[in-house]
Amino acid sequence: MHPVELDSYVIPTNALEGFVNVCVGWTNSNLVGALVPGLQRIGKSHAVAYFVENYRKWLGNSVGVLSTEVLPHKQISEGIFWGDLLTSMRRPAKKKSPEDRRQLFIGRLVEAGSRSEKKKVVIFIDEAQLLDDMLYKLLIGVHNEIWRLYHIKCVWILVGQ
């Protein structure tokens, strides 16, 4: 079948190329985090997926790259948060306790970072506007723990409205 029929093609627009170039620059610097704001329905999630699928073209094996998404809930708990992040990374969240889910999330980041030449992992968090202060502090704790225990650098790229 033709890629148009399968909806499996990408048109490298100026905006997409700009996104890639900025993300590569952030990744190659000692930046620990960045924000990618934008209006809804302009292609932010698509750009993240494109970067995750093709980052080796630009970065080789120097870093690991992962993508996850914050999902909306009426009321969110720590266990739901870690479970959503794992599920959006296509990792089962079979463990029930929040601490076990957190450790699975950390394990996934450490796995990706330890395979890289620079011992660095880039984590895209889509729908980041849904992060409240508590959830943001949970991610800071993960960042600190990964560096302190495993000496793996993290670059957090928060994407949202």
Structure write-up:
With 161 residues, this protein is α/β, with parallel strands linked by helices. Helix 2 (14-28) crosses helix 3 (44-59) and helix 4 (78-88) packs parallel to helix 5. It has helices at residues 3-6, 14-28, 44-59, 78-88, 98-114, 133-150; strands at 33-37, 64-69, 120-126, 153-160. The protein is built from six helices and four strands; from the N terminus they run H-H-E-H-E-H-H-E-H-E. A four-stranded parallel beta sheet has the order 1-4-3-2, sandwiched between helices. Helix 6 links the parallel strand 3 and strand 4 (153-160).
Task: Quickly describe the structure.
By secondary structure, this protein is an alpha/beta fold. The protein has six helices and four strands; from the N terminus they run ααβαβααβαβ. It is globular, with a radius of gyration of 16 Å.
Low-confidence runs of at least 5 consecutive residues: none
Let me know the largest β-sheet: 4 strands, parallel
State the shape: globular
> What portion of residues is helical?
40-55%
Strand order of the largest sheet: 1-4-3-2
N-end to C-end Cα span: 35 Å
Structural class: alpha/beta
Look at the structure and give the mean pLDDT.
94
* Number of separate helices: 6
Radius of gyration: 16 Å
Number of strands: 4
How much strand?
15-25%
Order of helices and strands: HHEHEHHEHE
